[in-house]
Amino acid sequence: MQDTIWYQSPAEVWMDGLPIGNGRLAAMVWGEQTDIVTMNHEYLWRGEHRNRENFPVAPEALSQIRSLIENGDYFRATALANVWLGGRGGIGGVPRRIDGYQPGGELCFAPQGTCGFVKRELNLLNGVCRSERTVNGATLCMTAFADAAGGAVVCRWESNAPVSGRLLYRRVPDEHATEHVTCRQDTIRYDCSFHGGISFSVLVSYQTDGAVSVEDNSVLICNATKLTTQTDIFVWLDGQKEPTAIEQFCYDTVLGEHCRIFRREMERFSLSVDLLESDEPTDKRVEALRRGEVDDALVLLFFRYGRYLLLSSSLCGALPANLQGKWNDAINTPWGADYHLNINLQMNYWIAEPTNCPTCADSLLKLIDSFIPHGKQAAKELYGCRGIWLPHATDVWGRATPESFGWAVWIGAAPWLAQHYYNHYLYTGDKKFLRERCYPFLKEVALFYEDYLVRDADGVYQIMPSQSPENAFEGVGMFPAAICKSAAMDVQLAYMALGYAADAADVLETDAAEAAHWRDIRAHLPAFQIGSGGRLMEWNEAFTEREPGHRHVSHLFGVYPGDLFTSETRTAQYEAAKKSLDYRLAQGGGHTGWSRAWAACLYARFGDGEKLYEHITEMMKEFATVSLLDTHPIGINGKPGFVFQIDGNLGASAAVLEAVAQARDGKLHLLYALPRRWKNGSMQGLKTPGGHTVNLVWENGRLKTVAVTMGYANRITLAYAEKEYILTGETGSVQTLTF
């Protein structure tokens, strides 16, 4: 059952439920005696602030902040930078204007009579959730899936004897919304309008062989052996409209087509390791892992689950996965389940290109495309620069405004996303995409640097103000993030983004003078500094860290997801980064799911498969729910608690992938960080820069065979066991190696 998570106990709370989705719609299936399907739509954000603008910034603000930085007055520089450039929300006590991602409501079927729970499961290959109960002695089976053809969420209840129950649609109480439910013989309609925001409608179409009795807010189904529902959500951004009725359909046909599409996408990539597979329910395996028992196969299941979540939150959607993917049951979710652009959103898509999910990767880029007009306006309004500036946290409305006083004075979001634009070209070879979408974005990032960087007396281009998300050093008072000059991550991002822009210009044979200028700027950026303790420096000076065990390791971007510091390139910084990571973790770092996942990815780049495995295992012990969803520790109503955060799931999957194959230094490094316990295995469908597809098999920890289907590039370099193998061939030809 390597592709199934299953349980012999019900999910009594939402976070222990089983997620299904097609990108546009998502649902969490849970419930003890009642089947509850909590619905979400990707565009269901409140919309109260979808037209927000930036606050005016004094023309002299930037020069004053820079003067304070130059004089070493970091406290006043941090304070002034946040006053002018940090937005009004955050630690200042004013609510930020980012709209929160909202629940769409719950479809519920409550059987009448004595219920007993039997089993529930989620098949990761076909994206179908099933559960089984007994009701008054009858066996009642429920099946749920989010149609992978872009359709509705479909549920079917079937029993071997007549069963009665109540079908209803409801939403959590919301004092800032107006709602109405209408029940009819074959439909339930729910309408909701957020005060000052958008409106949405939910249409539940149902068919049954039982008797139907319509009541005010629910439907009583009597003596039925079958009940089938289709639930769709319609989001109205510009006023209320009438949804089109859901067409009648053949359940078996829709289910079969859904399974075909979803399985096709899942099987575009596979990773298998010969491990002892447990026949215990998934929750029992998680509990055993927490007790210290070994379950190697659970780590591989966790990897597959991550890829399942990526597809389920991106496959047919127009938007990328947010902090909770597309699943949410609360009106006031921490951070509004928004988009954090200082690692979390990027981490969600680290596996998209290499595991052959280009349409998922494009959903991220489509969101960023929508920010370009306002991002260019923000660069001018906030910093007086050409080019583009993007905020560190935002929502879906394409508005580039700083909303987190204390954290938001950071210019690195757009440069980091430049990596995803350029990678999409490198993996697909799509020249049209490069010309029309990728290069224009990269050029805007480079233009911002042209205007923003300050050349000092030594000819070095300094980044001021600068920040290392989300860390602080002593001397900046209450502020959670410190402002300085040329923090390490900002320098690394500038180096890589300017390189992408110049390389893209070369490919397109355009803007030669600009490309030369960008390379000259890059050559004169501040050095990648190593401190006296041998650790990679996080800031421009050897400040005393306020929180040595901080969850972010932003200064290690150049190791992963970048490749500035490797075992072959800038080896001094590479070794210093190892020491920095070890030190950070020794001081209590890695205390969130996503932070553990990032640490595992870094250890993969350091070639340490044992620590990689240790951190993924510890992450699962500390932060995974019984349904394998990653969580983030946070205080809720003054009490300790945990909230679902999907980036840890997807980041851990990236670490597992990196253990087997990692693209860096212009090469594909194979089995570079393979844990010793993964002795025998195979990988099929790996994508690489150049558009190649790689299949490989290993035995007893040693590579056995590699087969490469050549992409748009006619050359690939494989690195294994300190040797390099260069393969060449025409597009579509298969080149093999046997070891």
Give a verbal description of the structure.
The protein is an alpha+beta fold. The protein is 31% helix and 26% strand. The protein is globular and about 85 Å long.
Principal-axes geometry comes out as globular
In terms of structural class, how would the helical and strand content be classed?
alpha+beta
Low-confidence stretches: none
- Rg estimate, integer Å: 26 Å
Q: How far apart are the termini?
A: 31 Å
Please tally the β strands and state the result.
Answer: 31
Largest sheet: 14 strands, antiparallel
Given the structure, what is the number of helices?
15
What does the average pLDDT come to?
95
| Helix content class | 25-40%
For this entry, what is the oligomeric state of its chains?
single chain
Strand content: 25-35%
Question: Top keywords for this entry?
Answer:
alpha+beta, 14-stranded antiparallel beta sheet, 31% helix, five-stranded antiparallel beta sheet, 739 residues, 15 helices, 31 strands
Topology (elements, then pairings):
Layout: E1 4-7, E2 18-21, E3 25-30, E4 35-41, H1 61-70, H2 74-85, E5 105-111, E6 115-123, E7 128-135, E8 138-146, E9 153-170, E10 177-183, E11 187-194, E12 199-208, E13 211-214, E14 218-236, H3 251-266, E15 270-273, H4 282-290, H5 296-314, E16 339-340, H6 344-348, H7 358-383, E17 393-394, H8 413-428, H9 431-452, E18 454-455, E19 461-462, E20 466-467, E21 483-484, H10 488-508, H11 512-523, H12 571-586, H13 593-605, H14 609-623, E22 631-636, E23 639-644, H15 647-660, E24 661-664, E25 667-670, E26 681-687, E27 693-699, E28 702-709, E29 715-720, E30 723-728, E31 734-738
Parallel strand pairs: 25-29
Antiparallel strand pairs: 1-6, 2-3, 3-4, 4-5, 5-9, 6-7, 7-8, 8-9, 9-14, 10-11, 11-12, 12-14, 13-14, 15-26, 16-17, 18-19, 20-21, 22-23, 24-25, 26-27, 27-28, 28-31, 29-30
Helix pairs in contact: 1-2, 4-14, 5-7, 5-15, 7-8, 7-9, 8-9, 8-10, 9-10, 10-11, 13-14, 13-15, 14-15
